[in-house]
Amino acid sequence: xxxxxxxxxxxxxxxxxxxxxxxxxxxxxxxxxxxxxxxxxxxxxxxxxxxxxxxxxxxxxxxxxxxxxxxxxxxxxxxxxxxxxxxxxxxxxxxxxxxxxxxxxxxxxxxxxxxxxxxxxxxxxxxxxxxxxxxxxxxxxxxxxxxxxxxxxxxxxxxxxxxxxxxxxxxxxxxxxxxxxxxxxxxxxxxxxxxxxxxxxxxxxxxxxxxxxxxxxxxxxxxxxxxxxxxxxxxxxxxxxxxxxxxxxxxxxxxxxxxxxxxxxxxxxxxxxxxxxxxxxxxxxxxxxxxxxxxxxxxxxxxxxxxxxxxxxxxxxxxxxxxxxxxxxxxxxxxxxxxxxxxxxxxxxxxxxxxxxxxxxxxxxxxxxxxxxxxxxxxxxxxxxxxxxxxxxxxxxxxxxxxxxxxxxxxxxxxxxxxxxxxxxxxxxxxxxxxxxxxxxxxxxxxxxxxxxxxxxxxxxxxxxxxxxxxxxxxxxxxxxxxxx
Length: 485
What we know:
The protein contains 9 helices and 25 strands. The protein has 485 residues and is of the alpha/beta class. The chain has 3 domains: 32-140, Immunoglobulin-like; 145-219; 222-476, Rossmann fold, CATH 3.40.50.1820. It has an 8-stranded mixed beta sheet with strand order 18-19-21-20-22-23-24-25, with helices on both faces. A 5-stranded mixed beta sheet has the order 3-2-11-15-14, with no helix packed on it. A hairpin with a 5-residue loop joins strand 2 (45-48) and strand 3. Helix 4 packs across helix 5 (355-367). Residues 12-17, 19-26, 43-64, 111-117, 138-159, 161-189 and 210-222 have low confidence and may be disordered.
C-alpha cells in the first residue's frame, strides 16, 4: 500500500479517536454574555423567644464543618450548582452562573442560649439576567423563635403549619424535652399547628392555635436589656455597607419602630484599616471601646460619673481607610445610616478623636449649611483652627463642644481658636444687637485639660468625675428641629 495513503489513513484514525465522545456527553461552554455574577451576604437574624429575650447572630453563627450553598435551576432540574462554603467565605461569596431561574438553598446552625439550633434559608425563583446581581439572604428580617409546650401530646410526627400566608407545609423544629422551638417569619395572622399521632393504629390529629401575640411579631420585638456587647455587631466592609466597615450598636428597646438619636464616632489615624480584618482597631478608643467592654451606657463608678442620657443612642463607628475622614466620607456614611436605621434626624451627633475629630471639623467646613446634624464634639482634634479661619462666625449655627489637652502635640489652638472666636461673635452681637449680620453661636464651649497631652479620650468619653462634664446629656439637649434630608 502506498506509504502516503497509510499515513493519511493513520492520521484519520487518530483524529477520529481524539474527537470521539461517549453518547450524550458534551462540553458546555457558557459565554460571558450569558452568565451572571451573583454576590451573596448574610445579615443578622433576630430570634425572639416568648420571654422577649433576643439575640442577634452575626459573628455568633457557627458551622459544623462546611455547608453547601445550592443553586438549582427550576426550569431544568438537572442543572444544580453546589458550593461548599463556611460562613466567613459566604460573606464575600461571588460566582458566575448561567442565566436562568434558580432556587437557592442554604442551611446553617446558630447558637442560641445553650443550644445549637438549625436554620434553613430558601430563596425561590431568582432570575439572573446576565448583569451583576446581589441576593441578600434574610436581609434585616425578624424571625420569631416561639417556644411551644407539646407535653400534652404524644405526637409521632413533627407538626406542620397551616395558614393563609404560608399554606400547608412542614416546619423547622428543634426538639428540647417536651418543647419545640419554632422558627417562622413574623406574621399578623392566626397560625395553626397540626400534630398527628397514632393510637392503636388509628391516626388522630391535634391542632394548636397560635394567636398573633404569641408570635411576637416584629412590632413587638425589641432588643433586650443586658450587656452592651450583646447588641454590638461588627459589620465588615461589603456585608452591609459596600464602601465602609463599621461597628453597630443598637440600644435596648431598638426595634419597636421608634426613632433613635444617632452618634457617629470617628477614630484616630492609628486605627485606620481595611474595614475587614483590621476592624478590631476601632475598638481601641471612644464609645466603641466602652460598648465592647460593657461600660455602656455610662454609669457611676469609683472614678466615673454617670450620664443622665442613659441608653439613648444608636452608635455607629466607621473605620476610615487612610488619612483623616473627609467631609464627603462623613456625609455619605451619615446619610446611608439614616436610610438604614431607625434614626431621628433631628438628633444626629458627630464626635471624633484626633484625626477623627478632624473629620468632624471637615464635615462642618463643607456641609454645615445642610442643616442636618444637631451638635458636634471634636476631641483632641485637628482642623479646628483651619475651619474657623475659613468660615468664622458662620459655624456658630451648630452647637460645638471641643475637648483638648493643653500639652497636646496636636496644638490646643484647634480648640481655643474656633471656640474663643465663636464666643467673640456672641460678644459682638451683644454690643451691636441691631446688626443684621450678627451671628451669635447657638452653644460654643470647650474643656481644656490642664497638664494633659493627646490621650484624653478616656476622660472625655468615660465622663471622669474629676471634670464633671456629660457630653451625652449635652448632645440630647440640642435638637435640630430644622433638620432636612
